[in-house]
Amino acid sequence: MQTATELFGYKKYWAQRFGIAPELPMSRDEMDQLGWDSCDIILVTGDAYVDHPSFGMAVIGRTLEAQGFRVGIISQPDWQSAEDFKALGKPNLFFGVTSGNMDSMVNRYTSDKKIRSNDAYTANGAGGKRPDRAVNVYSHRCREAYKNVALIIGGIEASLRRIAHYDYWSDKVRKSVLMDSKADLLVYGNAERQIVEIAHRLAQGEAVSELKGIRGTVHYVKQIPAGWTEKVSTSIDKPGSINPPLNPYQEEPACDKKPTQSGTEKVVQFSRSIPNKQRSQTVIRLPDFEDVKDDPVLYAHASRVMHGETNPGNARPLIQKHGSRQIWINPPPIPLTTKEMDAVFDRPYSRLPHTQYGDANIPAFVMIQHSVNIMRGCFGGCTFCSITEHEGRIIQSRSEDSIIKEIEAIRDTSPNFTGHISDLGGPTANMYRLACKDKKIESACRLPSCVFPSICPNLDTNHSSLIKLYRRARKLPGIKKIFIASGLRYDLAVESPEYVKELVQHHVGGYLKIAPEHTENGPLSKMMKPGMGSYDRFKQMFEKFSKEVGKEQYLIPYFIAAHPGTKDTDMLNLAIWLKSHSFRADQVQAFLPSPMSIATAMYHSGKDTLQKVSRKADAIPIPKGIKQRRLHKAFLRYHDPKNWPLLREALAKMGRTDLIGNGKKHLIPWFQPKGTETVKTAKSQKFKTKYTTAIKSSKRKSKPKQRKAR
Are 434 and 492 in contact (CB under 8 A)? Predict the structure, then answer.
């Protein structure tokens, strides 16, 4: 893998003489108190400013401060005019714009496209403090405020919209956000490495238009640079015949699986050399925006090719034309080393909201203030998730000492700490220090997941480093309990029974949330999630180890409704499974097609994009209509009387009236409690009259005849 300049190895900018700010300034008065006449960099964010390493702008701001730059924050500005964007004056180097820790559309709208009433990243949870498509709106206002200042966009919203992408809320393919925002440069992923290089190069006098070829960035090009070879994407992944699903993005064999002489373990041997110089000087041309916006199959093809170029060890640049302009998407940034990760998290964060918020409650801060992020990245590859597209597949872990130091800082400085650490985790709970056994194989691998359809034999699943960390952390004076609240990969956990024992007996507070997501193979195969066999194995371990220490603890499984590949019968079977296991979900999640995810390409195209897409290929089930999506959610909440009318109607149409009745074997009752009717219409009364006889008849039969689902 290509090497990179050490993150904190640059010569510091001259403004380091001003020292460290107690908190990054949000007003001219604060700048005056620090002795600043101007800011070198101004970061604009859609979140309330919390100086905590779980908030992106705090991390970027403090990292730039460590390079010697004076960094100011404009938080949740009034976007109706440019006035708030002038609050700190004109930045000497650039504006950095982000929507915040969430995509602004995901933040504001539910999966049913309803406006949310609150915003966890805003003081007192108030809604409406950021605009739709905040990156675009903020960028335009920055241009109005100071026309000639360099404008750089980043964060989750920019990352997931870096190429032409399907937008669920407008139900169309939109241009790269670089085009719509009219920014000069886009940074994607965890942006420390690229934003530091950008800042230093601009400080040295380079124009923003000269900043080409920086990994983890997207910029404009007029033509293919000299020395580069262009390769059309359809020559790599031509829409046509179907590939075997085990290796969906493979352009050429990356490895051969051969048994060792002992025959006890399969080891993947890299079969080719590291990509040569010719390959590293190749750019892949994606279909033009004008083509993919009107052709869902071509869009699915472009998505597959893009996802195949996400490994920093072998990714090639992509180029895509938007009208008369072209954007160049550089390969992902080189992952941070442990030393660099430690330095990022060791910045002088106050770990508190900015003082301007006073005693206001910021829900997201309350949730994470006593949590510790121990790693980044995820090699799970779940198709509905955006972590891999943003943070990458390579796990980046902090050192044990750095994590312990942060726990001690929380204990010693947090004003309301009670001895409980709410989480030691990150994107996942148990990928800390897990990696490929061979760096050459890791650099060459083109698979989208290390754990699907089964765990790769090259993946080191040893949890000993995490076990050691847990044991050391809970022995710290003043620490009463450490909880693990991040998402657990239980298919990995069962590979280490010692880890499961450690987790269950010391770090569960009565309930442990895990996410099987579904019980049926149809949707699971489109999610790239393991089957219920792994869940059952983990459940057995969970119950065994809980019993050993006399604890009554429970697993709380999470499931997704309306995911691509899901039929009504799949949701019915899931509901039956929930009923048979006495689970009643209070909150349910419906699939939300986030920009750029693999599952979103399925949703838009109706094709299985884990295989080569073809116009003649069979369509997969896509629950799109409001009524069907509501039905799928209703199956997850089969116990809610408000859902019974909808479920009765659906079960009757599916030929499953045998599931309606008052017995334990029935999913829902035939009666409707007063005050729980959701629709009182002639149609619902007609339904009641039509099916009451059938329901009562099915109750009298010991073996009711079932009709096939339609």
Answer: yes
